[in-house]
Structures are given as structure tokens and as C-alpha cells.
Amino acid sequence: MKERIMIREGDQESSADKEKVSGEASAREARFGHEEAVEFVGRHRDFFEHYARGEVNVKPAPAGLDTFAFDLQSNDIYVNSRFYRERGFSDEKTTFATLHEIEHFKEKAQVLAERGGQRTFERYMSRIKNSRAYGLMDNCVADIRENRAVISRTNQSFADIESSLYREDLFKETDFRSQPKHIQLSQALLRESRVPGEACDVAPEVREKLDALHGIASKDGTKLLDAMTDPSTPMSLRLKLQDRYIWPAVDELLKKDMEDEKKKQQQNQDQQGQGQSGEQGNNQSQGKEGQGGGPQKPQKKGRFGKKDKKKEAPSGGGKGEKDEAPSDPNEVFKGAYEDAEKKVMNAVPIEDVEKAFKDWNEGNGDPLERADREYAAKLGVKKEELDRYRNIVKSLEDMKNPETNQSVIEELRILIERIIARRLKPVPAPRYPMEEGEDLVEAGQLVSDVKAGNLEPKVWETAETRERPGKKFGEVEITLVCDRSVSMSGQKLSEQRKAAVLLMEALRDFAERCEEERTNVDKPLEVRFEVYSFQSSSEDETPLKKMSKELGEKERIEVATKLSSVESNASTTDFIPLETIGKRLDSDNRKKITDGELKKIVIVFTDGESDDRERVKKILQKLREQGVVAIGVGITEGGIAALTTYAPDAKLAEKAEQLGRILGELLQEHLADV
Fold first, then answer.
1. For a pLDDT cut of 90, what percent of the chain falls above it?
2. Numbers of helices and strands, H then E, in the chain
């Protein structure tokens, strides 16, 4: 007979028996869930197949899958109606939601079919994982697009179902003011887009952002949001548009929300400190009474007879870790995101999307491998070099600024967009009633004012343009000088290469954006770039990449490949590339710098003391007198000499992995006035 293990508190079954019963219940639940999925898909199969038109295969979810899932290789989408049924959806609403998920799937399959789609999708997944604010915004914008697609391919009855969904199930309440402002913006954008005529209650600054977004239109009158969420708009273009217009607004509100949270925490700490001061004063008074024979309140003890430290309030004004405000928005607003995601649901969890993407990569390995080899051969580089470069680019998304907890490359993208925005052509200023102008806007007021004796009534409007601030350089030249001396090995070499790739990718994006907006800015901007390295050889005077605005993939791969090795017995001859840069700075460029037309930045990486410090100081002085921004960055403690050699413009990356972040900070600092 099987022995039953009992626990002390009562006549209950062992944990092993409980686990067995629980496992049987879970298996039963999974079986019922699968049967329900089979029944739902079987009942609507003809409709789903007609809707999908062969682009997607709709299948019931297998046992154990309580959500939706998809296979990007076979174009199968697995449906579990229970996911929506458990949330109170009717059969009609569950059917609508299934069509909605089909559209999500089609978008992802479409972007992967594009040239460069894999990279676009990888970057998209990285941003979704790193920022719940970005993920919520993307889901809200995508939901507008998916719902428009469903309605365009069905009939009015589905439009009525959608309206009922948002009014009765997802967003019964339309007052979002209790939520953080950046969440208000995303939710109101979705709700107001799908239920026109019903405005949501949001904070004034959120309404201002919403009005601004709704006011963006093309020359033919097409609204930005309409174009972005049109079913025919590719996902890759939608992502570009929302990254350019919507995310900056969400991100600005997110930063304000973080500031508000810090203020709240500081106020709470101040109140705690004041409360503790009062308690201490009372305790001192009670102590004096005790000395005089008065009663004393006994100190509360813990369960082991000692003072219960867990119930002590932190000391007022303390700077321990417990008092520090969290810096990760994902943690600060965790509860708010969970509430919001109940209204903007993800039927396919991010982990399952990642798995589907991974399976797609593996399943399409042979064709992609072949395509990559052909592409590498066309570029004139090795396939291994192409793969290594792509892996470095992928790792850049994980390089975070600890102060903002944001990706360094993302911060640079935001900086680039701000630079472009400052250079856009002047826009009409607001029009106000004036005593005279081009347009008469208050004819009735004109008559009544004149009759009353006011011969200069403010009934006219006029338009004027205002210049945006900024120095507006016409050209930017950036030179990176890398260390290939023998001491640069291991992690230092790897991090230097990663930092160089970070710079090249950022400047490539910068140059492309400048070219895209060339006709829309009042003063075009040209970005040029070059790379040197020093290894105490004749190559010190020859750039790895010549100064030009061209920064093709082949050049970027070749630079990264060159920076993956060091020269034996090479020392720190940083002065040679610096002197070469000085010689090539001709009179025309010097005049451009003086006139504010050219901004020239030189950044030097080094992990050791220069072979000739005085020679370095001499050329630095000359370059700086000519208006060149020259900066030295020491790598680890071995490069601490750079702080004095390159003073006053010098930095130290105490750890090699800090190099990329410091480079990002330097770019933000010295490109801020471009």
C-alpha cells in the first residue's frame, strides 16, 4: 500500500499528491481548451479561409496553448478562442479579434519578406523588449491599422462589433487622467481613432500632443495617422513614421512622468523625515519622564526577543539604496503598464513572437545563408566579416546609458531627429487679430467698432514667419582615431571596435536623414567621416576610411575588420594621425570653421601613455586654435595619461565596456549645437 506523507498542521494530503491532482487538472483544462479551439475554428473555418485568401492557414491551438501563436515558415496561425472568451467576449467579438490577430500576423510576415526586413524586425523586437512604453505605443498604433484592415475587408456589421468592443469591453471608462501621461497618449490615440466623436479625458499636455499629431498632414490634405495606419502601408514604413512623429511625443511625456515620480518620492521621504523627527522628540520627552519616575512605554520586540528591525522606518534624509528612486520606467510604471495591457491585449506574447522569429531564421537558414554569401561576395567582403559586423550592430541595442536606462544608439537617433527638426524651414507663426493685415476676419466687429468711434479695430489677421534658433552649421566632419598598439587586446580591442561601429551606424543614419530632408530644411547639412589608427608604422598617416559623406556597408565592414587586430610591438604613436589631420586642414576649411559653416570633431582612443606627449600637446594646441574640437578618451586605468595629455577635453573609460557609452555622450555634447 502506498505510504502517504502527512504535514503537521492537519489531516491534509502530501505535496506530491497535491501536485499529481494539480497536474491532472491542468491536463484536463488543456484538453478542454483544445477541444474548444477545435470547435471554434471548425465552426468558422469557411469564413476564416475566405478572409485569409490563402495567405494564412488558420488552425486550432494545440493542447496546452492557451493563447494565439503563429509559424512564420508555414504561414500558420494557431487560434485559441478561450483567450478572448475568458475575457467576456461574445462569439462575434472573438471572431473579430481573430481577424485582428490574422492582420498582426500578416504585417510581420510582410516585413520579413522585404529586403532588409530581418534587420528591421530584429530592431523592432529589441525596442519592444526594452521599453514597455514603446511596446504599448506600437500596439495601440498597430491596433488602429489592424482594425481598419478587418473592416475594409468585411462589412458594416464588423465595424459595429468593433465599436461595441471599445465601448463595452476594452475602454468602458474614457477618463485616463489617473494613468501616467505617456500611457494616456497611447490609449487616447487608439480609443479616439476607433470611436470617433467621443473624446477621452486626458491631462492638458497630453491633449496638446494629441491635437498636434492630428494636425500633421501632407500637402494633399492626407492626415499622418490615416496614412500611417492605412492597411496598404507596409509595417516598415509605419514603424518609421511612428518613430519619427509619435514616439518622440510619448518619450517626452515619459520623461516628465519619471520626473513627477521622483518628486513624489522625495516628498514622501521628506514627510517620513519630519515624522521621525517628531517621534524622536516625543521619545526624548518620554525618556525624561521615565527618569523622573513617570511610566515608560516598553519597546516592541520581535518574535525572537530582539528589536524588530523590519518595522523600523528608514531614517529621514538617508541616501541608502532603498531611498533611491528607480531609474527603469519599466519598473516604475509596472502596475500602470499591466492595467493598460488589459485594454490593449497581446494575444501572442512577446516570447512567442521571438520564438517564431527564431524558428523562421533557422528554417530559412539555407536560402538566407546562400543569399548572405552572395551579398558578401557582391560587396567584396568575407561572409564571416559580414556576420561579425551584423552581430556587433545587433549588440548595440543592448548598450545602455545607466543614467537614463535608454539605449545609447536610440539616444543618438533622437539627437539626430532633433537636429533635423531644428533645421526645418520656417513655419507660419500663429495668427492674431491686428489693427491692420491681409485678411479681414471680423466684418461685423469692424462695423460696430467704427460706429462706436474706434477707427482701428483689431479685426484683421496677418501671417509671419519666425526663424528657429541654432548655429546651423552647413557641414560636420568627424574623425575617429583608434589605438592598434600591442597593449590593445582582448576586451579593450573588442569594445573599441564596437564603439567605432556605433559611431559609423549613427553617422550613416545621420547622413541618410540629412539627405532625405534636404528639400525640407532651410539650410542643408552634410556629414562627413573618416577613421585613422596608429600602430607605429607607415600606415599611421593613411586613413582606414577617407573623409567623405559616403559610408557604405562595405566600408563599415572593412573598418570593423581592420580594428579587430593589433600590430605586434606597436606603441602609442597617436601624434602621427593628429599631425596628418592638421596638415590636411586647408585654408578653405579653416575659414569655414571660423565662419561657423563647418564643425570639425576629432576623437582619439588610447589605452596608454603617448610615445611623445609634448608632440601631442603641440598639435592639439594648433588644432584647437583653428577651431577643431579635439578629444582624447583613455581606455581603462592604463589610459589615464590621456586625461592630462589631452586636457581639458579628455575622458576616461575606467572599464572598457564604458567606451561606447562615453562616445555616445561626446557626440550628444558636441553635436547639440549643430
1. 39
2. 25, 13
Residue 457, CA distances (Å) to 216, 451, 482, 496, 569 in order: 33, 11, 68, 68, 84
Angle in degrees, 0-180, between the axes of helices 365-379 and 350-363, rounded to the nearest 10: 70
Q: Does 197 reside within a domain?
A: yes
> C-alpha angle 447/450/453, rounded to 5°?
150
State the DSSP H helix or E strand holding residue 578, giving kind and residue range, or none if neither. helix 575-583
Which residues partner with 57 through β-bridges? Answer: 76
Q: Is the peptide bond before 428 cis (omega within 30 degrees of 0)?
A: no
Do residue 170 and residue 122 come from a single domain?
no
| Each residue's pLDDT tens digit, 289-327 | 444 444 444 444 433 333 444 434 443 334 344 456 568
For 614-646, give the DSSP string. HHHHHHHHHHHHTT-EEEEEEESGGGTTHHHHS
At 136, list the grid cell. 504599448
List of residues 6+ apart from 296 with CB closer than 8 A: 286, 287, 289, 290
What's the pLDDT at 9? Answer: 39
What is the rounded CA–CA span in Å between residue 577 and residue 546?
A: 13
Read out DSSP for 494-511?
HHHHHHHHHHHHHHHHHH
* Per-residue buried b or exposed e for 528-556, using 16+ beta carbons within 10 Å of the residue's own CB: bbbbbbbbbeebbeebbbeeebebebebb
Q: Which three cell numbers stand for residue 26?
A: 491542468
Residue with the bigger pLDDT between 656 and 301: it is: 656
The pLDDT tens digits for 224-234 are 999 999 999 99
What is the pTM for the complete model shown?
0.48
Residues 480 and 453 in one domain: no
Backbone angles phi, psi at 566, to 5 degrees: -120, 165
Instruction: List the domain range (segments joined by +) for residue 114.
Output: 37-130
What is the torsional sign of CA 467, 470, 471, 474?
A: negative
Q: Is the pLDDT of residue 433 over 80?
A: no
Contact 104, 356 (CB under 8 A): no
Asked if 77 and 200 sit in the same domain, the reply is no
Cβ within 8 Å of residue 485, ≥6 positions away: 534, 535, 536, 566, 567, 570, 571, 572, 607, 608
Torsion of Cα atoms, 406 then 412 then 418 then 423, to 10°:
180
Task: Please tell me the predicted confidence (pLDDT) of residue 73.
Answer: 74
CA angle 467, 472, 473 (to 5 degrees): 160
Which residues, at least 6 apart from 490, have a Cβ–Cβ distance to it below 8 Å? Answer: none
- Give me the mean pLDDT over the 145-159 stretch: 92
Cα–Cα separations (whole angstroms), residue 371 to 262, 374, 442, 556, 575: 50, 5, 67, 20, 43
Is residue 370 in a domain?
Answer: no
Do residue 637 and residue 504 come from a single domain? yes
**Residue bearing the bigger pLDDT, 569 or 617:** 617
Cα(265)–Cα(184) distance, integer angstroms: 22
- Counted domains in the chain: 4
Q: Are 624 and 633 in contact (CB under 8 A)?
A: no
Range from 116-125, 174-183, 207-216, 251-260 carrying the lowest mean pLDDT: 116-125
User: Strand pairing of 650-653 and 629-635?
Assistant: parallel
43: CATH: 3.30.2010
Strand 76-79 relative to strand 400-401, pairing: unpaired
